[in-house]
Amino acid sequence: MSPVRVTDMRWSWVRKNLLLLLTFSGVLFGVALGLALRAVGPDSTTILLISYPGELFIRMLKLMILPLIIASLISGSASLNAKINGYIVVRTILYFMATSLLNALIGVLLVVAIHPGSPLARQALTESLTSSSNTTSNVNILDGFLDLGRNIFPENIFRASFQQVHTVYEEQLVTQHNNITGVDAKITEMVRSVKYRAGTNTLGIIVFCLVFGTLLGSLGKKGAVVVDFFSVIDTVILKIVTGVMWLSPLGVASVIMSKILSVENLGTVMSNLGLFIVTVVVGVFIYQWIIQNLLYFIFTRKNPLQFYFHLLEPWVTSFATASTRRDANTEGDPTNTTQPNNALCASPSPPTITTLYTKPASMT
C-alpha cells in the first residue's frame, strides 16, 4: 500500500472520529487546566463562570431526552407488527427486573466483601440484618414489586416525565386505648404511603410509547400521517442532538474543571473515597464487562467489543456529564427499535453501590 493511500486512510479515520477525538481532548484539557488552576485558588464567582458552559451543555442534553425517547419509540414501533412489539414490551420489563436484581446482588456482595464505608459499619450492618424480622423483609420486597407495577402503568404520562412512584414508611403518632387501665397512650407506628419522587419514569414512558406506536401502526393508512409526524420529529431531534454534541468538547472541559476546582481538598477526598472508588469500579467491571457482554452475545450472537467501539464517544461524554440517558444514543436508523434496547444494555448501575455505601456509614 502506497504512503499516500495510508495517509488518506488516516485522515479519513480522523474525519470520521473527529468528535470523539475532540471530546477526549476536552476531558484531558479539563483535567489538566483544572489541576493547574487549583494553585491559583479562584473564587466562587470564577468557578461559577467556568462551570457555566458545562451547565448549559448538560441542560441542552437533558432537554433532548424525552423528545428523543418518545419520537423514536413511537415511530419505530409503528413500523412493526403487534406481535413483535409485544415481545419488545415483555423483554423490556423482564430486562429491567433481571438487571435490577443483578445490580442489587452485586452491590450487596461487593459492599460486604470490600466494605467501603466506616470500619464500624460492618458490625452495625450485621447486627441490623440479624435483628430484622422476615416480615419486614417480605414487606420491602413486596413494595418493590408493587412500585414496579405502578411505574409500568403511570396514572399521568406527563407526570411520568419527571416523577416516579415509590413506597415510603413514615412515623405516625396514634392514640391507643388500654382496656385494662382505661388510659389512652400515644404510640408511634410506621405507616406505608405511596408518594412521588423526582426522576423520569423511563419504564412507564417506554411501555406507553410502545403500546401507542403499535396501535398507531395497526390503523394502516388512517394513522400514516401521525406516523410520518413522529418520524419527522425523530429526525429533527437527532439533528439537534448531533449539533449539540459538537459542543461536547467545551462542555466536558467546563464540567471537569469546575468539579476539580470546587473540591476544597482533593487529596483528602480521593484518599477517603479510595475504597468507595474501588468498589464502584469493580462493580461496574463485573456488570459491564461480564454480565452485559454475556447478555449481548446471547441475544445478538455478535461480538460485544465491536459494539463497545461505537460507544466510545457516548462514554467519554457521559464520563463528564454523568448523564448516560442521552449519551447512550447511537448513530443509525432512527426507526430502529433495537437502539433503545442496546442503550439500556450499555448503562451500568453504580447507584446501587452508592446507596449501600452511604447507608452503613450512617449507622455508626
TrEMBL record:
Q: Which molecular function GO terms apply here? A: glutamate:sodium symporter activity; L-glutamate transmembrane transporter activity; neutral L-amino acid transmembrane transporter activity
Q: Does S-adenosyl-L-methionine show up as a keyword for this record?
A: no
The record's annotation in Pfam families points to:
SDF
Its family remark reads: Belongs to the dicarboxylate/amino acid:cation symporter (DAACS) (TC 2.A.23) family.
SUPFAM superfamilies cross-referenced by the UniProt entry = Proton glutamate symport protein
* Transmembrane segments annotated in the record for this chain: 60-80, 92-114, 198-219, 273-299
The UniProt keywords, alphabetically, are: Glycoprotein, Membrane, Symport, Transmembrane, Transmembrane helix, Transport
Question: Has UniProt tagged this entry with the keyword Transmembrane helix?
Answer: yes
Q: What is this protein called?
A: Amino acid transporter
Per the UniProt record, the source organism is Scylla olivacea
Query: What is any one of the record's Gene Ontology cellular component terms?
Result: plasma membrane
The compartments listed are: Membrane
What is the membrane topology here? Answer: Multi-pass membrane protein
The record's section on InterPro entries has: DAACS (IPR050746), Na-dicarboxylate_symporter (IPR001991), Na-dicarboxylate_symporter_CS (IPR018107), Na:dicarbo_symporter_sf (IPR036458)
Domain of life (superkingdom): Eukaryota
Composition bias type Polar residues, residue spans: 332-344
Where is coiled-coil annotated? none
Q: Where is this region: Disordered?
A: 326-354
